[in-house]
Automatic annotation (TrEMBL):
Signal peptide: none annotated. Residues 13-115 form the Glyoxalase/fosfomycin resistance/dioxygenase domain. It holds the Pfam family Glyoxalase. The lineage of its organism: Bacteria, Pseudomonadati, Bacteroidota, Flavobacteriia, Flavobacteriales. This is VOC family protein. SUPFAM superfamilies: Glyoxalase/Bleomycin resistance protein/Dihydroxybiphenyl dioxygenase. It comes from the Bacteria. It comes from Flavobacterium soyae.
Length: 120
């Protein structure tokens, strides 16, 4: 197979669509509304879909890994956004492992985001 992949865009759900939309805009993603209950959030060439749909088992078992250039700096920037106070979400400090570094952030619905940097 010859893959000429241009992007991969996961679909995630939202327990409270408006709160999740605000959360992702606060994270610096650009929102493009596709329908009243469906948006795409972009940062450069990276994007994901947010839908006004919630299934507890699905959402609480969804994890997304987003590779960033510096996990420590990214954690500090996340901390500065006061997301835990504003949205009641859980932010876990950076941990350093053999393969690289990552911090964790649960979104308002329970989706677990890994923000990581691989060792070179």
């Amino acid at each position: 197979m010859n893959h000429n992949i241009k992007s991969i865009r996961p679909f995630i759900g939202a327990k409270n669509f408006e709160v999740s939309r605000s959360f992702y805009r606060d994270l610096g993603f650009e929102e493009i509304v596709l329908e009243s209950n469906f948006s795409v959030f972009k940062s450069g060439e990276t994007a994901f879909y947010l839908q006004d749909y919630y299934d507890k088992n699905w959402i609480e078992n969804t994890m997304i890994f987003l590779e960033v250039d510096d996990a420590d700096r990214y954690y500090k920037e996340l901390l500065a956004l006061n997301l835990t106070e504003k949205y009641g979400v859980k932010l876990t400090p950076t941990r350093h492992l053999d393969w690289g570094s990552e911090c964790f952030l649960h979104d308002p619905s329970g989706v677990l985001w890994h923000f990581g940097t691989f060792k070179k």
